[in-house]
Amino acid sequence: MAMKHHLARGRPEPRRVGNAAMVVTMLLSLCVLTYIKARYCSTPFPKAAEELEVVEIDEDYDSTSGGFAGNLYHDYTDVLVPLFTSTNHFGGEVQFLLSGIKDWWLDKFTPLFRQLSRYDVIDVDNDQEVHCFPRIFIGATFHRAMGIDPARSPGGVTVADFKRLLRRTFRLERAGAVAPRAGAPRRDKPRLLIISRKSSRRFLNERAMAHAAALARFDVRIAEPDNHTDMPNFARLVNSADVMMGVHGAGLTNMVFLPSRAVLIQVVPFGGLEWLTRVTFKDPAKDMGVSYMEYNVSLDESSLKELYPRDHFYLQHPYDVHKKGWDAIKTVYLDKQNVMLNLTKLTNTLEEARSILP
C-alpha cells in the first residue's frame, strides 16, 4: 500500500516563457509517496535487484518532445542541449520520461539518448506502468539559445563537450576544418555546403550560386534537410564541410556537426533581422568553435520588392514593423520572402570565408 504526501503538478518545458509552447506541453501529475512495496513498482532496469523496493538509479529526469520540438532549432535549443546540460554528469544512470513523442522524432534522436542514458526512454502518454524513482526532475536546465554556461552547469560542461558527444554519437571523423582527419593532407578545394529550402526564404538562383562557388574553387554540395532526413548520414555530410551557408532558418542548426574552425555563413533576410540572427546562430557559433559570417540581403536581392512598392511601409520602416510584435515580423520578413543573391557579392563573401579557414 502507499500513503500520499501530496500531489505535485508541473510542465516539463525547459523554457516556461512561451505560451505557444506551453499549450502543447503535457501537464504532469506526480505523487510523492512515503512507502511503496515492490509489487507496485515496475523495475525495467537491468541493474535493479528483486529485493529493492524502488529502482535504484541516481536520478530520473522528465522532459518533453512537445512544445516547439519538431523544428530542428527548437529540438536542440529547448530539448537536447538542456537535456545534456542537466544529465550528462549522471554517467548514463538516468532515465528520460517524454510526453508528446512522435515515433519519427524519437527514432531520429535515439542514438543521442543512448549516449546519455543506459535505459530506454519512457513514453508517459502510452506507458501504463507505475515507475518509482528516488528523485525526479521536471524540466531541463536552460541557459541560452543553443548554449551552456559552464559556471552554472553540473560538472562545468560546455557546448564543446556537447559537440564531442555528437561526434561520438554519429561517428563524425573531423574534429577540425579543412583536414579530413589528423595527419591527412590539406584539401585543395574547401568544401561548401549550401543549405537549401523548399518553402519561404528560398535561394532563387541556387544553381548560379553553386556555379559561382565552383569558379571560386570550392567543392560545392547542396542539401535540403527535413524532419525525415537520415540524421547520421546528414551529420556526416555537414561534418565534411569547411563552410556551411544558408538563409536564416532551422536548417542552420546543423552547424552543431561542423568541425571546429569551420565557417558558418548566415544569410540575413531583408528587414532589420540582425538581432534575431545574432541570438539564434551568431552567438551560439562562438561557443561551438565555429567562425561566423553574415551575408546581409539588400532590398534589391529580396523578393519583397516584387510584392510591395519601393515606398511601402514594410520596406522603408522595418523597425517600426518590429514594434508590432513577432507575428508581424514573421509574416512580412520570414514567411513571404525569398532571396536572389548578388553573385559578385557572394564570391567576395566566399573568398573572405576561405581566408579565415585554418
Automatic annotation (TrEMBL):
Domain of life: Eukaryota
Topology relative to the membrane: Single-pass type II membrane protein
Keyword field contains Magnesium: no
Name of a matching Pfam family: Glyco_transf_61
Domain Glycosyltransferase 61 catalytic as annotated: residue spans: 159-264
Pathway: Glycan metabolism
InterPro entries to which the protein is assigned, alphabetical: Glyco_transf_61_cat, Glycosyltransferase_61
UniProt KW keywords: Glycoprotein, Glycosyltransferase, Golgi apparatus, Membrane, Transferase, Transmembrane, Transmembrane helix
PANTHER family, alphabetized: GLYCOSYLTRANSFERASE (PTHR20961), OS06G0707200 PROTEIN (PTHR20961:SF34)
This protein's name: Glycosyltransferase 61 catalytic domain-containing protein
Organism field: Oryza brachyantha
